[in-house]
Amino acid sequence: MNMKDEVITFKVDGALAEQLRSLPNRSEFIRQAVLQALEMECPLCHGTGTLSVNQMAHWRAFREHHRLVTCDVCGEPHLACEDQDDVHAPESHPAEAPGTNQGEG
Predict the structure, then answer these.
(1) Is 63 within the bounds of a domain?
(2) What's the pLDDT tens digit per position in 22-74?
(3) Cα–Cα distances in angstroms (integers) from residue 53 to residues 21, 50, 97, 102, in the given order
(4) 4: domain range?
(5) How many CB atoms lie within 10 A of CB 88?
(6) Could you tell me whether strands 77-81 and 66-70 are parallel, antiparallel, or unpaired per DSSP bridges?
(7) Residue 91 lies inside a defined structural domain of this protein
(8) How many helices (H) and strands (E) does the chain have?
(9) Average pLDDT rounded to a whole number, residues 67-93
Protein backbone atom coordinates (compact mmCIF):
# COMPACT_ATOMS: atom_id res chain seq x y z
CA MET A 1 0.00 0.00 0.00
CA ASN A 2 1.96 3.02 -1.27
CA MET A 3 0.82 6.42 -0.10
CA LYS A 4 1.96 9.68 -1.67
CA ASP A 5 3.50 12.34 0.53
CA GLU A 6 1.04 15.08 1.36
CA VAL A 7 1.61 18.65 2.50
CA ILE A 8 -0.31 19.53 5.67
CA THR A 9 -0.53 23.10 6.96
CA PHE A 10 -1.71 24.35 10.33
CA LYS A 11 -1.92 27.63 12.24
CA VAL A 12 0.28 28.47 15.21
CA ASP A 13 0.60 31.57 17.38
CA GLY A 14 3.43 34.02 16.79
CA ALA A 15 5.62 32.78 19.64
CA LEU A 16 5.49 29.18 18.45
CA ALA A 17 6.10 30.26 14.85
CA GLU A 18 9.22 32.11 15.99
CA GLN A 19 10.51 29.03 17.83
CA LEU A 20 9.83 26.80 14.83
CA ARG A 21 11.66 29.21 12.50
CA SER A 22 14.79 28.79 14.63
CA LEU A 23 14.93 25.02 13.99
CA PRO A 24 17.36 23.72 11.35
CA ASN A 25 14.71 21.38 9.87
CA ARG A 26 11.16 22.34 10.80
CA SER A 27 9.53 19.64 8.70
CA GLU A 28 11.54 16.84 10.29
CA PHE A 29 10.94 18.21 13.79
CA ILE A 30 7.18 18.47 13.24
CA ARG A 31 7.03 15.04 11.55
CA GLN A 32 8.82 13.41 14.49
CA ALA A 33 6.65 15.23 17.04
CA VAL A 34 3.47 14.11 15.30
CA LEU A 35 4.66 10.51 14.96
CA GLN A 36 5.63 10.44 18.62
CA ALA A 37 2.28 11.92 19.63
CA LEU A 38 0.49 9.28 17.55
CA GLU A 39 2.69 6.52 18.96
CA MET A 40 3.88 5.58 15.47
CA GLU A 41 7.55 6.14 16.15
CA CYS A 42 9.90 3.17 16.14
CA PRO A 43 10.12 1.93 19.74
CA LEU A 44 13.80 1.03 19.33
CA CYS A 45 15.42 3.95 17.55
CA HIS A 46 12.77 6.59 18.33
CA GLY A 47 12.84 7.77 14.76
CA THR A 48 16.60 8.18 14.39
CA GLY A 49 17.05 5.20 12.08
CA THR A 50 20.05 3.89 14.03
CA LEU A 51 20.54 1.71 17.10
CA SER A 52 23.10 2.06 19.86
CA VAL A 53 25.66 -0.71 20.36
CA ASN A 54 23.61 -2.15 23.23
CA GLN A 55 20.33 -1.91 21.29
CA MET A 56 21.97 -3.72 18.38
CA ALA A 57 23.09 -6.53 20.71
CA HIS A 58 19.50 -6.91 21.95
CA TRP A 59 18.24 -6.81 18.35
CA ARG A 60 20.63 -9.58 17.27
CA ALA A 61 19.43 -11.80 20.13
CA PHE A 62 15.79 -11.04 19.30
CA ARG A 63 16.12 -11.79 15.60
CA GLU A 64 17.47 -15.27 16.31
CA HIS A 65 13.85 -16.33 16.86
CA HIS A 66 12.04 -13.77 14.71
CA ARG A 67 12.04 -12.89 11.05
CA LEU A 68 11.07 -9.99 8.85
CA VAL A 69 8.12 -10.89 6.62
CA THR A 70 5.87 -9.07 4.18
CA CYS A 71 2.16 -9.03 4.98
CA ASP A 72 0.01 -10.68 2.30
CA VAL A 73 -2.82 -8.23 3.01
CA CYS A 74 -1.21 -4.78 3.16
CA GLY A 75 2.25 -5.51 1.73
CA GLU A 76 4.05 -3.91 4.68
CA PRO A 77 7.09 -5.58 6.31
CA HIS A 78 6.77 -6.63 9.94
CA LEU A 79 8.31 -8.97 12.50
CA ALA A 80 6.98 -12.48 13.04
CA CYS A 81 7.92 -15.16 15.57
CA GLU A 82 9.67 -18.20 14.10
CA ASP A 83 7.10 -20.60 15.50
CA GLN A 84 3.94 -18.77 14.40
CA ASP A 85 2.06 -19.00 11.14
CA ASP A 86 2.03 -15.46 9.79
CA VAL A 87 -0.85 -15.60 7.32
CA HIS A 88 -3.52 -12.93 7.89
CA ALA A 89 -6.95 -13.18 6.37
CA PRO A 90 -8.09 -9.68 5.32
CA GLU A 91 -10.78 -9.65 8.03
CA SER A 92 -8.24 -10.51 10.75
CA HIS A 93 -5.58 -8.00 9.69
CA PRO A 94 -4.25 -6.04 12.72
CA ALA A 95 -5.06 -2.68 11.07
CA GLU A 96 -8.72 -3.71 10.98
CA ALA A 97 -8.87 -4.44 14.72
CA PRO A 98 -11.27 -2.40 16.87
CA GLY A 99 -9.64 0.71 18.28
CA THR A 100 -7.33 1.26 15.30
CA ASN A 101 -7.92 3.70 12.50
CA GLN A 102 -5.36 2.46 9.99
CA GLY A 103 -8.04 0.54 8.11
CA GLU A 104 -10.30 3.59 7.78
CA GLY A 105 -10.25 6.16 5.02
Answers:
(1) no
(2) 999 999 999 888 888 888 888 888 888 899 999 999 999 999 999 988 988 88
(3) 34, 10, 35, 33
(4) 1-47
(5) 16
(6) antiparallel
(7) no
(8) 3, 2
(9) 79
